Amino acid sequence: MKFETLLGRWDGGELSQAEAAEILGMSERTFRRWHTRYLEAGSAGLQDRRLGRPSPRRAPGSALEEACRLFRETYPDHTVKYFHEQLERRHGYRLSYSVTRLAVQAAGLVKKAPRRSAHRKKRPRRPLAGMMVHQDGSRFAWLPGEARQLDLIVTMDDATSELYSMFLVEEEGPASSFQGLRETIAARGLFCELYTDRGGHYFYTPKAGEKVDKSKPTQVGRALAQLGIAHIPAYSPEARGRSERMFRTLQDRLPKDLRLAGIATLTAANRWIRKTYLKAHNARFAVPPEQPGLAFVPDRTEAWRDVLCIQEDRQVANDNTVRWKGLVLQIPPSPLRPHFVRATVRVHEYPDATFAIFHGPRCLARFRADGSLIDDPARRAASRSPRPAGGYVDGASPRPHPHRPGINKSGQLTRYENRST
Q1: Domain contains 217
Q2: Residue range 105-155, pLDDT digits in tens
Q3: Do 171 and 247 lie in a common domain?
Q4: Are residues 262 and 322 in the same domain?
Q5: Could you report the per-residue pLDDT of 219-259, keeping only the tens digit for each?
Q6: Which of 1, 12, 29, 251 is nearest to 140 (CA)?
Q7: What is the 3-state secondary structure (H, E, C) of 46-103?
Q8: Is residue 208 part of a domain?
C-alpha cells in the first residue's frame, strides 16, 4: 500500500500512527521521518537517498582492473573459480569470489553460466576410508601445447575423495591398473572393494552392454581375488558420477597448472604430479570421512608385490629357457632340482617392465627388461645349502669321541698323534 494513501487515512483520523506504521512494516519513528520528508520534498523525498552513491564498502576499482588484466593476459583459459584461487595463491588477492566474478562478467571476459537443472541424488559415500576405492582413466590432451591425447590413471577413495595415485600413460591397460594399485597398497594397505568401469582389462563382457562374466577373470580380476579385494563393475557413466566429476575438475585445472609450471613432457609431468600436484589437490578437494578410523589392512608379507602383475604359465624348453614376448629367459642353476626342462613355470611381468620366473611359490630368477638376469642376493642366499664347508650345520663344533679323543662322532680324525715312540 502506498505511503500517500496511508498518510491520508492517518490525517483523516481513520488510523493511528502506530497502526499506519505497522501496515507499512516500519517503526513509528520511521513513519514520522517519512512524513517530514514528504512534507518537505513530496514523493521525491521518499526515495532511497543511497541510490546513485558509491558504497563505502565498494571494492577498489584499481584492484578489479588489475584482476581483469591478469585474466586477459595470464589466465584466459581458467574458470572464474580457479582464477580467483590463483589470484589468492599467487598474487596476494583479497577480494571475494563473487566480486571478482561480477567484475570479469561486466568486462565481457566470461559469460554467465546457464542455470542448472535439479541434480539427481548422489550415492552416499562409504563411511570409512579404505572401504571402497575407485580407479578410472580419462583420455585427454593433458600436456600444454600438444594435441596428443594421453590417459590419466587415477585411484581415489570413495569416503574422502582423496587421490592415492595419479599418473599419465600412453594408453590405459593392465600395467597402468597394476601401477595405481601398487602405489595405493604400498602407501595405505589392502582395501575392501575396487569400483571400476567394465573395460576389457578389468572384466570380460561376453556381449557389449550386458553383465560381466566373473567366471573368466582378467589379469586384474585374478590379482584382486588373490588379495581378497572385491571387484565391483559400474554399468553406466552416472554410476561413476564421483569419478566423472573428479575428472571434470582435473581436465579444467591440471593442464593449466602444467602450463604455468612450464612442463611439457610426459616424464616431467608425472614427476611434478607426484611431488607437487597430488598434495595440493587433496588439500583443496578431499573431505573428512563420515566416521573416524580406517578400513585399510596392512599386508605384512607384502604378497601384493608378486600378485599385482601379469602372470602366465609357460613350459620350460629343452635348453632350460623360457620364451616371453620375444625374449629368451635363461633359468639359472637351482638347488631345487638339476633342471626344469618341460616343467610348467609361471612368468610374472611387473609394471616396471621387469620379469620373474616362479615354480610354484618359489622364485627361480628375476630379469631386467632386456632379459638379463638380476643378481638377487636374497634368492642366492636362500639357494645355498645350510651346511658349511666343514660339514656342520650353523658352524657347530664337532662332538669329541668319548673314548678316542682324537676322533669325533662322525669318524673324522681331528688331531694327529704320533704314537711311534
Answers
A1: yes
A2: 888 888 887 776 655 667 789 999 999 999 999 999 999 888 899 999 999
A3: yes
A4: no
A5: 999 999 999 999 999 887 777 888 899 999 999 999 999 99
A6: 251
A7: HCCCCCCCCCCCCCCHHHHHHHHHHHHHCCCCCCHHHHHHHHHHHHCCCCCHHHHHHH
A8: yes
Q: What is the mean pLDDT of the chain?
A: 85
**How far is it, in rounded angstroms, from Cα 20 to Cα 42?**
18
Q: Determine phi and psi for 183, rounding to 5 degrees.
A: -65, -35
If asked whether residues 316 and 349 sit together in one domain, one would say yes
Among 253, 244, 250, 246, CA closest to 83: 253
In single-letter form, the type of residue at position 7 comes to L
Strand spans (E) along 76-205: 132-140, 150-157, 163-169, 193-196
DSSP labels, 350-370: -TTS-EEEEETTEEEEEE-TT
Q: Which domain holds residue 73?
A: 61-106
Looking at the DSSP bridge assignments, the partners of residue 327 are 324
Same domain, 98 and 236: no
The backbone torsions φ and ψ at residue 18, rounded to the nearest 5 degrees and listed phi first, read -65, -40
All three cell numbers of 108: 565481457
Tally of helices (H runs) and strands (E runs) in the chain: 13, 12
**374 part of a folded domain:** yes
Based on the fold, state whether residues 91 and 208 are members of the same structural domain.
no
Crossing angle between the packed helical segments 80-91 and 97-106, to the nearest 10 degrees: 120
Nearest to 175 by CA among 342, 48, 309: 309
Number of domains within the chain: 4
pLDDT in tens, 151-210: 999 999 999 999 999 999 999 999 999 999 999 999 999 999 999 999 999 999 988 878
Domain match, 151 and 208 both: yes
Query: Is the residue at 117 inside a domain?
Result: no
